[in-house]
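Appendix B, example 12.
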Amino acid sequence: MQDVPKPVTEAFQRRKAHENTRIELRKIHGHYYVYKATSTYNKQRKKPVKISQLLGSITPDGTYKPKRQKTNTSTTEVYEYGNSQLCLKLSQDLQNALSNNPLKNQIIALSIIRALNPGPIRLAQTTWDETYLSKQINANLQPANVSSTLATLGSMVQETYELFAKLAPEPGMLFYDLTSVLSYSKKLKLAERGYNVEKELTNQIKVAMAFSASTWLPVAVDVFYGSIKEVKVLKYFVERFPAKDIGFVMDRGFSSYKELLGLKKEKIHYVAALKKNSKLLPSVVKMVGAFGYRKRNVAFCKIKRRPYGFLYLFEDPELRGSEESFLLGKVSEGLNTMDDFRRERRLAGVIGILSDLDVEASVVYEQYKEREEVEQAFDFMKNDLEADKTYLGRDEAVRGYFVVVFLAMRLYFKILKRLRERDLVGKVSVREVLFELSKMRMIVEKGGREYLCALPKKTEQILEVFSDIMTYG
């Protein structure tokens, strides 16, 4: 086809790259349309017959508009309302921080969708269209546009760290989590051969995320080459992070204890769990007291351990029982002797934590235990990276992707924080909150009238937890 505007051609090529079938561009009465081209065998004519189906149109400026689906069964539209509105309310700090960012609508929309339904990018537009927010915020979440948005966001390194500074709370302890993400994309320079936590050599990307121990919210994220060692990642992260009076609750896989002395020298606090075979653990453990943690009793002791600071030791009776059973199992399988069992059982159920902090033992224990929620949520959010590799062919797009994951996790943990305040952790999950609130639907009639549907009892109970944020009736 001749004399096709360049924006139209480029938009068609992008559409062509994302379709699983053959498509055609046609010019009809000065307008450009995209058709799906298939064929079927005609028995009477004894030859294949071409079948065309209209998919959408492309405007002269290169905007693709999918064909509107007609419906003859209803004059109303029904949107999920409660779940997305809660996320919108909880993202107020993000909206303020992004007030001058040209990508504001796209970033907010992607963050909310990621929190509601952390699925593949190709489903973002479908999920967005099902929410009432799609009528309130103008955002294009078609795969090609999302890919472009993520790449642009990922290239805005300085602006991203300025965003972290705006979202960060007062200085305090941070959870530091370094995760290796598998990647089989040959296009990504970030994906290099490196060792994961299981000491396996794989193609991977390393992602570091910090959480505030005072607000329980993510405060920063960054992406690194897969071959870079953890110590170097940590040094870079500390140098780039805007706040300096901070500390880290380290990943349980952290083993570079000498690096802790570097942190101490820089007056950066740390809480680091020791491995069972660490030489810093004493041969005999004598507990001096106990405290309650989530309906469990934990024994503790605290000893000075130069030059690091303090060694905190904790003993959990329930954990001791399960670990002793595991050790006995190794004896019954012939892998260990009873002498091995007696030697190793001295630390069964014992957790050793190294820290420069001179505080109550229960404070250190809580910071250590609570990071499990961080790890679980992070794993939950990152698992679709490989499913989205088609749209993340550039390093910048991967960086942008994890910034969106970071912002979605802020929403996730704001909900979790409210559940913790109401003593509902373990009774109601964040997923359950968002699912129940999705039943709070907005009905929009053809004439423009809008109203909320009646709510089931469980949804009303969830809504009550957020009554200061959400209203109904």
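Residues 183 and 204 are 5 Å apart (CA to CA). The chain has three domains: 6-66, 72-137+408-473, 172-393.
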